[in-house]
């Protein structure tokens, strides 16, 4: 079985996503990091499904759900990023600390 | 035909109904409620007249009572009405005179302030009096008695914008209250002795010389008499009556004629058997009080400048006649004088009101020469004056003659001569009043006019009985089919046993007439001539006597002095007690309370309760300040802590469990 290799790939991708999420300052790159994390999860789901072979193909169905939600999330997220950039001439998260109190 | 006797209670209710209705809707009516007051009295008058006529022909004796409450086992409190010769006479008098005065008041009060309130209080006045005279027992009598006092207080102080009028109302009320204590105590003593408040029971017990009643009759009788003295303004309680002139003139007319002051005489007549049979010892004292009143108060009328005060003192004097007569044993004589007096005194007051209305002054020094301008007022006033003076054959002559005859028969010869002297004084001051008001030249301002018809018609209607009412009681004469006044009045549950003269005693009657004529002649000689000023006209300048009379025998000063001398030290002592004992007590309690309050406030409240509250809020504030720092607004810090949290959870799940 190639399960272990898949899981290692997924974990690596997830760690990469978290790293990008935490250290990148550009909003677009943060969104990309989030996509990386989501796809890491997708790889996990598909890998487990290929081993377990559930009757309703739950793993594959869930990965499609995740892709759908990710598409929607990216759509909204990019729209917000564009609006912020238009208003503030910047896509740097360090400039966006207004959302407190 | 007992319908009217059985429903006589309607007379007691209607004026109160009118009172309430006028208070409710009087303001919106065209005549401001006068129609309601007059309507109620008109219905009453029908009832009273029918009863009066029935009593003339067959005698009406009935009683209707409703039990309201029981005191103990056998003392019953009832309300209701008694219909007998005495109460029918009073019903007739109050309603007829009241109706005429009400009609007169419509003209007199036109354009005045608070007309609806006037008629409301007026209805209350008449209603209370009817409640009083219709009372079958002492309790209802006291209720009506106090009602009359209240209504008179309200009406005397009717123009309350002027402080003097308020004071006059207070004076009337307080003087009456003092006497009312006597009535209340007397009623309780008599009722406890007899075992009933009912007049019938009391009078029957008195007629049978009941043992229990005999022992308290003197005290009880004296106390009841004290009450009667207050209401009927007997010396020395007369001081309130002249001041009561502060009210509107129709009020004075009604108060002096039919309601209020007659209540005392009525009480004496109602409980007459008690005095006649059991209270022998005190009767001379009562006669003496009446005699003092009738003579001394008449003299005061000689010097008064206010025409209403002349009439007021005259009323006091005439009440003295009535009280003397009833106390001496002349039940019919006293009540008959009450009857005739009501007509001519109401007439005189309304006539005076008519003059005041035209002249806009109460003082005779502003009048004079009104004979030509006000002929109706003049002639009716003269009729009333002659009747009051006791000139044959007007009403006053017959009733006064009956009193003189009674006094003579009962052996009060000296008092009889005082009464004759009183007749002289009466004629004297009435002549003065007529001369100063209607003769000579006009001293006032403007041009006086005769009053409107709504005022003169009642005058004429009152002048008729003032002239002829005396014919109802000519000694020894029984009118065909209807008898005479003393027979009507004798329709009582108990035989009154008073003396009636069978023939006219011409010697006595002649003395009375001569005294009256002498009074008129003297009055005319002194006051008849026109003088420039009032001081010159008022030439009654006898030294000592004149200042004595002008100051009303210093009675008011005496009353003030007595109250001041006795009450002053008491008041000072009470003040001292108040300052040094009660105040000290109050102050120490206050100090204690203050200390306790300081402790509660400073320690318990400020430190304890507030400390807890403040501590909590400070803790919340500090926690908030600390936690606030976590909210940096930097999304990646949030994400980092989130990741850290997840890692911690993973470690916990993987390695611990």
Description of the structure:
The complex is a heterodimer of chains A (101) and B (657). Chain A has 101 residues and is mainly α. Chain A has a domain at 25-92: Helix Hairpins. Chain A is built from three helices and no strands. Chain A has helices spanning 3-23, 27-52, 58-88. Chain A is elongated. The N and C termini of chain A lie far apart (52 Å). The model of chain A has no long low-confidence stretch (mean pLDDT 88). Chain B is mainly alpha-helical and 657 residues long. Chain B has helices at 3-6, 9-25, 34-57, 85-108, 115-133, 138-156, 163-194, 199-207, 211-231, 240-243, 249-257, 262-270, 272-278, 283-300, 307-328, 331-359, 375-389, 395-409, 413-438, 453-468, 485-489, 506-527, 534-537, 545-550, 555-628, 635-656, and strands at 62-71, 75-83. In chain B, helix 4 (85-108) runs parallel beside helix 16 (331-359) and helix 14 (283-300) runs parallel beside helix 19. At the A-B interface, helix 1 of A face helix 26 of B.
